[in-house]
Specification:
There is one protein chain. The chain has 152 residues and is mainly beta. The chain has a single domain, classed as sav2460 like domains (Lipoxygenase-1, Sandwich), CATH 2.60.60.30. Strand 9 and strand 10 form a beta hairpin.
Length: 152
């Protein structure tokens, strides 16, 4: 991770909520460890399901070395649902993570404190506009703990 190499925009703080400027949301996740990406669709009743990767669906990703580029088509998602964007380490801990959003241009740098899983962001609608909350919640137990936190 080298924030001096490219324009990563202004820093977001944990808990900050930002308006998403268009229906195509592009994110870049950069870390110094091998990780997997998880996108959960959480319904208003609290039930959740994992959204699969599909280039023709709402969620697609490309791996570029240690970085992962994610594209979300927000128009194809339920406006009354909340999306949880998380990463988890395949082995060991996540390490430091840099999450960059394209519009509005900004980033959040996260120290994962020896955790195997991190919820990076919550994506939701408010007043018919998509928003993102820069979350940064860590889970020492990784994927099982993240899934347990969002079970109904």
């Amino acid at each position: 991770m080298n924030p001096l190499v490219t324009d990563i925009g202004r820093p977001f703080t944990r808990g900050e909520r930002v308006d998403i400027e268009n229906s195509k949301m592009n994110l870049l996740i950069d870390s110094n460890c091998p990780m997997e990406v998880l996108l959960l669709d959480v319904a208003p009743d609290g039930s959740s399901e994992i959204i699969g990767i599909n280039p023709n669906g709402p969620y697609f990703l490309e791996k570029h070395g240690p970085a992962v580029k994610i594209e979300l088509d927000l128009e194809s998602l339920h406006k009354d649902h909340k999306l949880i964007l998380a990463v988890y380490a395949k082995h060991g801990v996540c390490g430091d993570i840099l999450l960059t959003l394209d519009k509005p241009r900004g980033h959040i740098a996260l120290n994962t404190d020896d955790s195997a899983g991190v919820v990076l962001a919550e994506i939701y609608t408010r007043n018919d506009s998509w928003r993102m909350k820069a979350y940064g919640g860590t889970y020492k137990e990784g994927l099982p703990a993240i899934l347990s936190a969002y079970e109904s």
